[in-house]
Amino acid sequence: METKNKGVFTGSIGFVLAAAGSAVGVGNIWRFPYLAARDGGGLFILVYLVLVVTFGFSLLVTDIAIGRKTGKNALEAFGEIDKKWDFLGKITFVIPAIIMTYYGVIGGWVLKYFVDFVTGNAAETAQDGYFTGFITSQISPIVYMLIFMAFTSLVVYAGVDKGIEKFSKLVMPGLIFMVIGIAVFSLTLRHTDANGVTRTGMQGLAVYLIPDFTGLTASKFLNILLDAMSQLFFSLSVSMGIMITYGSYVKKEVDLNKSITQIEIFDTGVALLAGVMIIPAVYVFMGKEGMTSGPSLMFIALPKVFQAMGTAGTIVGIIFFVMVAFAALTSCVSIMETLVAGCMSMFKSDRKKTSLVIAVIYAVLAAVICLGYNVFYFEVTLPNGAAQQQLLDVMDYISNSFLMPLIALITSIFVGWVIKPKWISDEMQFNGENFGRKNMYTIMVKYITPVIMAVLFVQSTGILNMIVNIFK
Length: 472
Ligand code: PHE
Description:
By secondary structure, the protein is mostly helical. The protein has a two-stranded antiparallel ribbon with strand order 1-2. Strand 1 and strand 2 form a beta hairpin. Helix 4 crosses helix 19, helix 9 crosses helix 16 and helix 10 runs antiparallel to helix 16. The chain is globular and about 65 Å long. It starts with a helix and ends with a helix.
């Protein structure tokens, strides 16, 4: 009964692809490039890479090993190890529950652009105010969100082995090919603007990769570090129970060390390539000013870039948006799968009924988020200082900037000091494998992660600023 409801990945490839499918999403393709551009290219990338192999690795190991060793989903895993820590599973469950309210909304936006490009509306999307006009309209964003959520629900409804694994096996390799293709295309671009200035893709690549240390201060560096760290959480789908649930589907004979390294390479590789695909192109057509447009980079600047490419731009645009839609879909599937697995065990219900109920609930909640740009419009300043934020940003803040560092902090205390790192490393060496970064893992989980997480938490909640102001 257990396996029938819960499912098992057929092998390590299935697991790696499904985990990579969860990790690779709008985080890599939309969020990483704009942060890299904003934070000075090369330096951000360097910081991010160091964090991936140390910090990101430790978080992935912790989640996946806990999942496989207990064989339980995130909701039950902590209580299974130690009754007193059952609460940790409960707060972990809150993160996918929050992310699910808005991830489908972004998925819908991507779908909308894909449909626009397919139906010959590409030129319109490149016009000023098009994106704002779209998200502030009442019906259209909800319709696209519902289509996106319907696809997501279908995959989850079909079950983990038939649904997610098959889906990821198909989508992930295709995704890689497409990203590489467009990245190479971006590098060959050349454009002369109205002032007669010619910029090339290779120059754009230099801007993207070469660190710019001019005007770098300690506080700027701290911001880059914090940006890179929050990106790491979001991008690797760690500390939110998802990798625990996926870990519980992995067979004992799979070498977790290899799988985890592959997931790291996959996720980081796609992010880096997405940067090559987007940043040089934006630089070529819009110069350095175009690179600072932040979160709107993908939806506002890229259609302009595609338009400037002429006929080829429409085709490139179609490929691009279908690719992002797929990446977003596999990520959204992982979020919903975690919720479904949790509710199945909580309510002792079957997969099909649980998926349906959750699909309906979230269709309603996500519609409310869509209306956050019109009916429920407001502007708030969040404790981390971000101004003019709407409903979607508030949900994003609660999950990514508030709960994730908090959960990573508590989890590392639990693993580092209560069950001890050996509990994890035993699982990593279950079949006598070589847990290569064992010593680093121990130091990370016992000392470095708790400290960095505490700093991140007080920074993102605004407590750090309050303290700094008191001593000023
Ligand atoms: N990691 C995914 C991305 O990079 C997003 C995601 C967030 C997936 C949270 C699951 C949970 O887009």
